[in-house]
Design brief:
binds zinc ion; four-stranded antiparallel beta sheet; 15 strands
């Protein structure tokens, strides 16, 4: 199928929409039922459907300009870590149980305690969910000369599974995965680590081992981000030689899980697109 949208990782999550796709989803009004659903659920204050500028819920997509037949948007990854004065040491930064002034408080950083506010990630998550749903089964064909590599479903709600990502890898992408040597895919891990740092301002030591992108037999790719076996893996029943295959989510409960896995998929998209272009150039 000719490409109607692409992902890319460029120290940020880039979504590229083909001009024909833009024509079909441009200027969706704020009173559209799907938009209303998200607005009411999350209490958003603004929807902008003008794809000629920054758009989405709370303008969470930044327009990055035209690239060939595509327009590029950055789905801006928010920082979810916020700081407040530490309750345990009343903001002094000194250990509340020690007689000595120079022992630091173990509950905070210099008197500031950090909390994770995932609400700041809901606008971009809901905007992505809306966009991917509109583009999942397009009722139009673009004139793009490159194939669609993957099609994605992304949930956006509060609770278990509320940050899920699932979808399908097309024939060309699955073929690319089968052509690669088995093992770790460092480019995917690097993108997820970068997304994690944008979200949380750092990678804690306990999360270091949580990033995984492992390729095995038949092009089977497992991608995990820090969590409880959180990520995506093949729907093995859908894997057939010479075909694309579906992937399913595990324990993806927050928009932070979602944005990290999408970062990994965007890096995968870059690798596959470059390799497929190289193959086409050789023929
Ligand atoms: Zn403290």
């Amino acid at each position: 199928m000719p490409c109607w949208y692409e992902l890319s990782w460029r120290n940020g999550l880039i979504v590229r929409l083909h001009a024909d796709s833009i024509r079909h989803i441009n200027n969706i009004p704020a009173d559209d039922p799907d938009i209303n659903l998200f607005t009411e659920q999350f209490g958003f204050t603004e929807w902008s459907g003008d794809l000629g500028a920054d758009w989405g819920f709370e303008h969470s997509f930044t327009c990055r300009g035209v690239s060939g037949d595509f327009v590029e948007y950055e789905a801006v990854i928010p920082c979810v870590r916020e700081y407040k004065p530490c309750d345990m040491c009343n903001g002094s930064g000194r250990n509340p149980f020690s007689m000595h002034d120079d022992i630091p408080c173990m509950f905070c950083e210099n008197g500031r305690a950090s909390v994770i506010n995932m609400r700041s990630a809901f606008p971009v998550s809901a905007s992505l969910s809306f966009l991917f749903a509109r583009l999942r089964y397009p009722q139009f064909a673009t004139l793009s000369l490159v194939p669609q590599l993957m099609a994605i479903d992304a949930a956006a709600f509060e609770g278990s599974g509320g940050g899920s990502v699932s979808g399908v890898y097309g024939i060309e992408l699955a073929g690319y995965l089968r052509s690669r040597p088995h093992g770790r895919m460092p480019e995917i891990i690097a993108a997820m680590r970068s997304a994690h740092e944008k979200l949380f301002m750092r990678i804690d030591a306990c999360h270091e081992s949580g990033f995984k992108a492992q390729l095995s037999d038949g092009g089977a790719l497992v991608i995990d981000c820090p969590g409880n076996a959180t990520g995506i893996s093949p729907d093995f029943g859908s894997m057939k030689p010479g075909r694309g295959y579906e992937f399913v989510e595990h324990n993806m409960d927050t928009p932070m899980h979602q944005l990290q896995i999408l970062a990994g998929l965007a890096a995968l998209h870059d690798l596959a697109r470059a390799a497929i272009k190289d193959d086409a150039a050789k023929q």
